[in-house]
Amino acid sequence: MTIHLLHIYDRNGNSLFAKEWSRKKSSNLTKVEEQKLLFGMIHSIKSFVTKMSPKDGKEGFISYTTSRYKIHFYESPTGLKFILLTDIFVGNIRETMKKLYSSVYVEFVVRNPLCPLNEPIRSSLFETKLETFMTGLSFFEDSN
Amino acid sequence: MTVFSIYIINKAGGLIYQYDHQKSSVEMEKTFSYPLDLKLEAYSDQVSVVFGQRDGIQVGHVVLAVNGKQTNGRKLEDGNDVIETIANEKNYPISIKFGRPKLTSNQKIMMASMFHSLYAISVQLSPVHGSSGIQKLETDTFTLHCNQTATGVKFVVIAEPRQVGIDSLLHRLYLIYSDFALKNPFYSLEMPIRTEQFDSHVLSAIESTEKTGSAA
């Protein structure tokens, strides 16, 4: 199993963090354009899902799968968005996504007074801890 | 186990067939005294709850009737404005009926073309080569399954997350489409499908999926 990439956005759609582990195909867009396209797509999916839902839901959009990859989505109540792209064999990783928020983002960004919120994360400590967290996941394996 | 609805989208993103299987929707009627403990706002031509949840009334629900009079957009049957009627203390106690907003046929067409573009973007954002678009979209209340044929027609089934046998239902829908839409001499390609035979076969395929988990 493979982890392709991770994106973190704030509630206004600014990219706070992006990291690639395994990426075989790059689109003909620039990094910034691609980040905006991804955010726009997730934003549209969220409104699509609320309108299409036959019942009142709590979590909303969770994930989608294509023939070759899968997107996992987690949004905190404050609007922070975590988007993880993996291969299609990864199951429901909702708890892992929550843990990524609570034990990596909150611990090493929110609790770091030198890390301004709502700005791209420039903390080597966060990057190291994130790397440890991701490589420790059972579905990480050889994502390079 | 339920199949909620079926959408068929042509290769240009137009909705050519839509069927809602589940008719019942949640509606709540309640009598309120002044002042109202919910915050209502007119939003995209409907009056909806924006704050305050109680007795099954949720944020996002819209006003369907006031004192037994149906609403028509932001107005009541008798021409009075919904917001003004609710704001007027003289009208209390007041009985208001709330429910989840239903998609109008125009909104369904919009949703279909929206899904068409989401499908295209998901291909473009793929980190690996040779990926298709969205085949399965999961949420906590429903799962959307999509099968795009080689000719670009998309069959979309919206069902309960636990529903099994969707793959065979999608395949069955494709067969019904080829047999009863494409072989119909009065059917012009890319146009909405209006054939009774098609409807009845779709219905029986859905019912058999719900009962046995297989559309065959």
UniProtKB/TrEMBL annotation, chain A:
<dbReference type="GO" id="GO:0005783">
    <property type="term" value="C:endoplasmic reticulum"/>
</dbReference>
<keyword id="KW-0333">Golgi apparatus</keyword>
<keyword id="KW-0256">Endoplasmic reticulum</keyword>
<dbReference type="InterPro" id="IPR007233">
    <property type="entry name" value="TRAPPC"/>
</dbReference>
<dbReference type="GO" id="GO:0006888">
    <property type="term" value="P:endoplasmic reticulum to Golgi vesicle-mediated transport"/>
</dbReference>
<dbReference type="InterPro" id="IPR011012">
    <property type="entry name" value="Longin-like_dom_sf"/>
</dbReference>
<keyword id="KW-0813">Transport</keyword>
<protein>
    <recommendedName>
        <fullName>Trafficking protein particle complex subunit</fullName>
    </recommendedName>
</protein>
<dbReference type="Pfam" id="PF04099">
    <property type="entry name" value="Sybindin"/>
</dbReference>
<dbReference type="GO" id="GO:0005794">
    <property type="term" value="C:Golgi apparatus"/>
</dbReference>
<dbReference type="GO" id="GO:0030008">
    <property type="term" value="C:TRAPP complex"/>
</dbReference>
<comment type="subunit">
    <text>Part of the multisubunit transport protein particle (TRAPP) complex.</text>
</comment>
<keyword id="KW-0931">ER-Golgi transport</keyword>
<comment type="similarity">
    <text>Belongs to the TRAPP small subunits family. BET5 subfamily.</text>
</comment>
From TrEMBL, chain B:
<comment type="subunit">
    <text>Part of the multisubunit transport protein particle (TRAPP) complex.</text>
</comment>
<comment type="function">
    <text>Core component of the TRAPP complexes which has a function of guanine nucleotide exchange factor activity for Rab1 GTPase. Plays a role in vesicular transport from endoplasmic reticulum to Golgi and autophagy. May play a role in dendrite postsynaptic membrane trafficking.</text>
</comment>
<dbReference type="InterPro" id="IPR007233">
    <property type="entry name" value="TRAPPC"/>
</dbReference>
<protein>
    <recommendedName>
        <fullName>Trafficking protein particle complex subunit</fullName>
    </recommendedName>
</protein>
<dbReference type="InterPro" id="IPR011012">
    <property type="entry name" value="Longin-like_dom_sf"/>
</dbReference>
<keyword id="KW-0256">Endoplasmic reticulum</keyword>
<dbReference type="GO" id="GO:0006888">
    <property type="term" value="P:endoplasmic reticulum to Golgi vesicle-mediated transport"/>
</dbReference>
<dbReference type="Pfam" id="PF04099">
    <property type="entry name" value="Sybindin"/>
</dbReference>
<dbReference type="GO" id="GO:0030008">
    <property type="term" value="C:TRAPP complex"/>
</dbReference>
<keyword id="KW-0333">Golgi apparatus</keyword>
<comment type="subunit">
    <text>Component of the multisubunit TRAPP (transport protein particle) complex, which includes at least TRAPPC2, TRAPPC2L, TRAPPC3, TRAPPC3L, TRAPPC4, TRAPPC5, TRAPPC8, TRAPPC9, TRAPPC10, TRAPPC11 and TRAPPC12. Interacts with SDC2.</text>
</comment>
<keyword id="KW-0931">ER-Golgi transport</keyword>
<dbReference type="GO" id="GO:0005783">
    <property type="term" value="C:endoplasmic reticulum"/>
</dbReference>
<comment type="similarity">
    <text>Belongs to the TRAPP small subunits family. TRAPPC4 subfamily.</text>
</comment>
<dbReference type="GO" id="GO:0005794">
    <property type="term" value="C:Golgi apparatus"/>
</dbReference>
<keyword id="KW-0813">Transport</keyword>
